[in-house]
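User: Sequence in, structure out. Go.
Assistant: Echoing your sequence, followed by the structure tokens.
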Amino acid sequence: MIPLLNDYPYLYETHLHTSQSSRCAKNTGAQMARAAKAAGYTGIFVTDHHWGGNTAADRSLPWADWVHAFSAGYRDARKEGDRIGLDVFFGWEAGFSGTEFLIYGLTPDWMIDHPELRTFCEPENEEGFTPLTPELQYQLVHSAGGMVIHAHPFREESYIPEIRLYPECVDGVEVINATHSNPMSKAHNDPAFDERARAYARKYSLPATAGSDMHWTELFGGGMAFSHPLCSPDEYIAEVISGGNYVMTNGVEWFDRYGNPVA
């Protein structure tokens, strides 16, 4: 079980992938849900790789069918979560030529109504949609009440051609990604990625978030802990944007909502 702080007993994984919907993941949504429940999480956000990322859904499918295939990992996790008593919320990780954003507060049905989402990485499109940029994505998500978080903004990997920052097009910054600093991590290992993200968030007064970026069931224990359970993604959004009462962890260390270490 993950050791929790007494005042913050409700831990949520905000960045998690499933093998049904992310090609780089190893375990199904149901397996991830059971592992999270056993580890002591109150809930998880399933944030699989979207059209512009390492998605496992067949891009040749019609858009509505693609969305259904894309959300399979979430549905599997949600079904198991309902059975075992784990909150499971929907989100996704949008990729823009290697720069990635976590989207919260919207639904697969909303996605079906917005096929322009696939232009985020493919500017040429037969339907005549105006190609989405980070700026237009932010406007679109906000118009529906969603939230955009810049995921691991300073990670350096071969699939990320350059570091791009969009402080005016995000609601917050993932300042702790447990794959960077948790001793169990076998990829992206460099705590400096998170240190730079924390400095970036402070510079622009952007809210800070934390997640593990999990792709398999050997959970790191990272995420965000609250004094009360979250009833919905909308409540999570409100807590982040309003500067609510939460703490963050990489599974080893704890930080306040500004990214400062706490005992």
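User: And one key feature?
Assistant: The mean pLDDT is 94.
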